[in-house]
Structure to design on (1047 residues):
């Protein structure tokens, strides 16, 4: 899925708000638009527009403007999360070919160096006689996160929507969370990131966008809450040409990779989804679908790999 | 309990002689060179730290897999060494042992120097040291690091008190001896209010007894909590219920080794043969043998059971430690740092001052490498493969800056001990005098 | 004639050759412009224009490009129906609604054409894009339990006339996407312009009262553009959010520590530091005794 479609969707989504408001539909069940509604103050100035059947409708001018990008949420809001949601990801291992477009997309949008990628693709092989496969690994956003347990200053925290975030303004760089994470998903900014331009470094930091990354603090996959607030999908989900990543809300029982949408419970049941290292008691939010009837042989992924296995 | 033969000591020593013998002495050429070398090492470390502050932790060899390196192993080492204060000053004293009295201040200053530099090196390891105060205003009670900060602060305060209160009677002696000289003001500030009245003695003894009782659980806590920085994670080599006891046993051994070294050095250069006698070395040596056996027992426990099971996640780590890339270091630390010194000290001849000194050095050096082996090999064997990362991420050898800072911190600790011995009596003067009187009284 | 053409062609070629080397008229990348016509909930139709240019093999959005939008006729005709002048934003998108001044022209026909033109500038060539649509609406009826009826009709001569053969999709609105209500990817309207579909996603979670939002959409239709209709219906399972998050736990924030930990930690700290403070008092007492003693 290319980024063009998502930005158009975003644009449309902003107009959808306007449309919904005009039609008088209640948008209370969609918490994203609640924020937009609160932001728009009616100016009292009316604008005349044409409807489909040629009627002239008057609309307050404020509701008509395409709503600009949501301002980043405050730190306390970022720590609480989006109420009513519980985000999960399902990764279909039969589709992964080690193209690492997920990695490229995530690195690009978060301005991180490729050595410090948040999405990693590992060649996995359970035992001597089992078949190898490629496994994209991200932060599991565990429900009992060992990293959060050990953080001394509340710099990494779990929100009510299931996402585990890092506050780079609070982090003291002790790296205990890195030692505690069994999935090796955290990276550390050992130096000032050269992927962050001076201009970007001056921008206000938001835990939800995790941009800009700061020297001496920890970083990891953040489930892109800034994209999710806009009704978009995380960058890795959009970037994968094979639709390997499915993202959704377990409370709504639905996951999507942009093109296909499934009921989460059915997908896991039908394809025998499982979690990684769940015996450790971390309760991860990322599920994997085993590489049964895979689309590509494992060797195809070796072409794109710059490391001998 | 063995009663020391004080007959020799009694006849030749008067109170005055004791005082003059035990006063801190000016450094000769060797002492001055030693101090200058330590200062240089500290300065080199400080410069390296400035570089680290400017560029970030990239100047070290730590990367995303080996995210803890010799700063942390140095930290564990310092905390381990500092336990000896509680061992000699508290445990032995509470057991009614008196021969260890000359060694209490040596042990205590090693403890204070150790715990001070443990705190400093941990700040060095932080990616954002300027945010150190976050630990206090945003601290999470659930985090083992917060427990560690709490117990280390407590232990520091108690050790300082345990160093200071018994030092008070000696301050008066120091003031008398240094009238008109520069240090007089310092001694006056520290202890001019000590008049030696019975009431003061009573309070002081009571305080020291309370401290001795209090410091034992606190000392056990600091090293147990430090071990929990590792044991509360899932990693192979760290996921062990044995860690608390294992660390404490190792700490006592390492600290005793350090005391043996210090005993020899002070005895030789301050000519304290009458106070730190061969008997002291003999007894200390026996204690070291016992501690080495205890540590050996815990090591066997720590390694035999995982090797028996060879769990998949632990297999690579264990192989690396025993027959792989870490094997030379591991076996040197075990054999050179534990078995050989222990074997040496089994014999009476081995418990003479000079062999004890050598054994002490071997134990301390072995302990330092053992701490490194606890921290880094585990990190280089994560659960998921190390793939698609630069080659340097898969190995760890400390960079120049790391060595400079680590050695600088060790030099700093030694400097604290050295400077203390230069300006304060390293053997408690008043207590030695009192012990002599007690023995004379007993004999009458 | 032919000689003239060759002549003018030759002159053009000559001019090209003589042209200063700085000009790269033929190197300007061509802009790819797409125009879509959209309706949400059958209300106000709007147009979305997307401008992209291919550089280094990748499509990049063109920002700050001005376009003129016309209804039915473009700039070359007199009495052109200018909808508006729009400029693309950072993502290369621009939007517009039909102003009421064109009410008469809009009402005149069912079918219309929208034209977007842009002038050439130093970066891109001039462009001219147009799409043709017909006015229509999509209505979903959820009166029958677990059955959806959707009707597509065109607005002809003041009345809504059902249209046959239009492909539409029916789904449940979810996080970031729409979940189709059954295994069928899309439905096609019959001769009555109707689609009847069974809601197969039983027990799909809704809000606390079991409400879900049903979505009917027509995507990229040649005649009707994009249409989307949303309607709330009570066919979902009641869902109450799990309150587990707010309990005290080892992984909670520093204000939600487990009680046993708080109790143990503070008792130990109070016990030990109480002793330390007592010891410091003793030290102060010793000091006072010394001062009083001669």
């Amino acid at each position: 899925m290319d980024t063009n479609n998502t930005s158009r969707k975003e644009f449309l989504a902003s107009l959808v708000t306007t449309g919904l408001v005009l039609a008088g539909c209640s948008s209370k069940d969609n918490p994203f638009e609640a924020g937009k509604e609160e932001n728009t103050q009616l100016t009292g100035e009316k604008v005349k527009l044409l409807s489909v059947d040629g009627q002239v409708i008057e609309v307050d001018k404020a509701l008509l403007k395409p709503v600009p990008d949501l301002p980043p949420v405050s730190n306390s809001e970022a720590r609480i999360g989006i109420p009513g949601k519980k985000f999960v990801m399902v990764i279909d291992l039969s589709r992964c070919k080690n193209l690492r477009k997920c990695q490229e997309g995530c690195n690009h949008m978060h301005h991180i160096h490729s050595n410090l990628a948040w999405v990693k693709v590992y060649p996995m092989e359970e035992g001597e006689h089992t078949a190898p496969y490629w496994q994209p690994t991200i932060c599991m956003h565990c429900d009992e996160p060992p990293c959060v347990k050990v953080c001394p200053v509340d710099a990494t925290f779990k929100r009510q929507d299931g996402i585990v975030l890092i506050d780079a303004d609070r982090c003291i760089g002790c790296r205990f969370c890195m030692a505690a994470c069994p999935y090796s998903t955290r990276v550390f900014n050992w130096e000032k990131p050269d992927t962050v331009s001076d201009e970007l470094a001056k921008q206000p930091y938001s835990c939800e966008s995790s941009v800009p990354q700061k020297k001496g603090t920890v970083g990891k996959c953040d489930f892109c809450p800034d994209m999710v607030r806009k009704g978009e999908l995380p960058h890795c989900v959009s970037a994968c040409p094979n639709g390997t990543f499915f993202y959704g809300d377990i409370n709504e029982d639905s996951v999507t990779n942009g093109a296909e949408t499934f009921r989460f419970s059915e997908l896991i049941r039908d394809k025998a989804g499982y979690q990684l290292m769940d015996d450790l008691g971390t309760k991860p939010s990322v599920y994997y679908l085993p590489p049964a009837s895979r689309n590509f042989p494992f060797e195809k992924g070796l072409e794109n790999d710059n490391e001998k296995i | 309990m063995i009663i020391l033969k004080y007959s020799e000591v009694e006849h030749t020593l008067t109170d005055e002689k004791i005082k003059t013998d035990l006063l801190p002495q000016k450094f000769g050429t060797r002492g001055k060179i030693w101090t200058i070398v330590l200062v240089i090492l500290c300065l080199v470390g400080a410069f390296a730290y400035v570089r680290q502050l400017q560029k970030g932790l990239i100047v070290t060899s730590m990367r995303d897999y080996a995210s803890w390196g010799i700063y942390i192993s140095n930290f564990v080492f310092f905390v381990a060494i500092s336990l000896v204060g509680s061992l000699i000053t508290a445990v032995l004293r509470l057991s009614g042992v008196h021969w260890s009295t000359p060694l209490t201040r040596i042990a205590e200053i090693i403890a204070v120097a150790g715990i001070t530099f443990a705190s400093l090196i941990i700040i060095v390891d932080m990616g954002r040291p300027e945010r150190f105060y976050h630990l206090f205003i945003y601290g999470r009670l659930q985090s083992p690091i917060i427990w560690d900060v709490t117990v280390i602060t407590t232990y520091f305060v108690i050790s300082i008190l345990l160093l200071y209160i018994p030092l008070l009677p000696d301050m008066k002696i120091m003031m008398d001896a240094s009238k008109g000289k520069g240090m007089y003001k310092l001694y006056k500030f520290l202890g001019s209010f000590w008049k030696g009245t019975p009431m003061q003695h009573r309070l002081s003894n009571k305080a020291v007894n309370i401290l001795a009782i209090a410091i034992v659980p606190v000392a056990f806590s600091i090293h147990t909590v430090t071990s929990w920085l590792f044991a509360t994670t899932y990693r192979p080599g760290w996921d062990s219920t044995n860690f608390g006891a294992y660390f404490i046993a190792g700490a006592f051994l390492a600290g005793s080794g350090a005391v043996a070294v210090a005993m020899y050095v002070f005895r030789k250069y301050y000519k304290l043969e009458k106070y730190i006698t061969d008997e002291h070395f003999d007894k200390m040596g026996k204690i070291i043998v016992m501690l080495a056996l205890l540590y050996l027992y815990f090591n066997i426990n720590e390694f035999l059971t995982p090797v028996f099971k060879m769990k998949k996640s632990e297999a690579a780590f264990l192989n690396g430690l025993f027959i792989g890339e870490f094997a030379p270091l591991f076996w040197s630390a075990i054999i050179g740092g534990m078995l050989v010194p222990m074997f040496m000290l089994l014999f009476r001849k081995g418990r003479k001052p000079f062999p004890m000194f050598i054994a002490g050095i071997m134990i301390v050096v072995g302990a330092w490498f053992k701490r490194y082996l606890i921290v880094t090999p585990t990190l280089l064997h994560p659960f998921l493969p190390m793939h698609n990362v630069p080659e340097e991420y898969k190995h760890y050898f400390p960079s120049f800056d790391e060595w400079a800072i680590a050695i600088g911190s060790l030099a700093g600790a030694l400097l604290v001990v050295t400077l203390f011995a230069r300006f304060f009596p390293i053997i408690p003067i008043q207590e030695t005098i009192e012990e002599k009187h007690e023995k004379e009284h007993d004999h009458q | 004639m032919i000689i003239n053409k060759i002549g003018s062609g030759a002159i053009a070629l000559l001019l090209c050759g003589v042209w200063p080397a700085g000009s790269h008229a033929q190197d300007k990348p061509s802009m790819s412009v797409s125009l879509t016509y959209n309706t949400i909930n059958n209300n106000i139709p709007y147009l979305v224009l997307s401008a992209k240019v291919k550089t280094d093999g990748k499509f990049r959005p063109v920002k700050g490009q001005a376009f003129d939008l016309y209804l039915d006729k473009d700039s070359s005709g007199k009495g052109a129906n200018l909808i508006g002048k729009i400029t693309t934003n950072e993502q290369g998108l621009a939007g517009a609604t039909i102003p009421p001044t064109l009410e008469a022209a809009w009402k005149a026909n069912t079918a219309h054409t929208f034209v977007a033109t842009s002038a050439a500038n130093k970066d891109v060539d001039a462009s001219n894009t147009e799409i043709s649509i017909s006015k229509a609406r999509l209505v979903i009826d959820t009166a029958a339990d677990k059955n959806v009826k959707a009707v597509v009709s065109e607005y002809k001569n003041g009345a809504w006339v059902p249209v046959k053969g239009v492909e539409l999709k029916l789904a449940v609105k979810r996080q970031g996407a729409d979940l189709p209500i059954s295994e069928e990817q899309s439905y096609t309207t019959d001769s009555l312009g109707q689609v009847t579909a069974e809601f197969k996603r039983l027990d799909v979670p809704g809000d606390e009262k079991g409400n879900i939002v049903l979505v009917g959409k027509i995507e990229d239709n040649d005649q009707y553009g994009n249409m989307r209709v949303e309607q709330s219906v009570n066919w979902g399972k009641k869902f109450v959010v799990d309150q587990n998050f707010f309990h005290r736990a080892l992984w909670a924030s520093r204000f939600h520590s487990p009680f046993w930990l708080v109790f143990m930690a503070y008792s130990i700290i109070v016990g030990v530091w109480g002793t330390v403070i007592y010891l410091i008092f003793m030290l102060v007492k010793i000091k006072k005794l010394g001062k009083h003693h001669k």
In short: Chain C has three helices and 17 strands. Residues 1-25 of chain C have pLDDT under 50 and may be disordered. Residues 259-292 of chain C form the longest helix (34 residues).
